[in-house]
């Protein structure tokens, strides 16, 4: 299994702190965002992403390892 490295601060740029963001399984694009994680998850699934990666935008960007 190959390891995927994603620049999350770059991917999350422009989203408000505290928002939930659904990221594609390939981790190359944000699909939906909002305040309610379940709603964001449902929106991503409606776009065809069965298992989106759910990330909450931090108040301050820093290195993150998932």
**Biggest sheet: strands, sense, closure?**
3 strands, antiparallel
Question: Which bin fits the share of residues in helices?
Answer: 10-25%
Backbone structural class: alpha+beta
Distance between the termini: 15 Å
Low-confidence stretches: none
What amount of the residues lies in strands?
Answer: 15-25%
* Helix count from the secondary structure assignment: 2
| Large-scale geometry | flat
Spell the H/E element sequence. Answer: HEEHE
Radius of gyration: 11 Å
Query: What is the averaged pLDDT score?
Result: 87
| Number of E-type strands | 3
Which strand order do you get reading across the main beta sheet? 2-1-3
| Tally of distinct domains | 1
């Amino acid at each position: 299994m190959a390891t995927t490295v994603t620049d999350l601060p770059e991917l999350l740029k422009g989203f408000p702190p505290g928002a939930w963001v659904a990221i594609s399984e390939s981790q190359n694009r944000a699909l939906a965002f909002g305040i309610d994680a379940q709603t964001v998850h449902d929106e991503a699934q409606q776009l065809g992403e069965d298992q989106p990666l759910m990330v909450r935008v931090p108040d301050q960007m820093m290195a993150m390892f998932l």
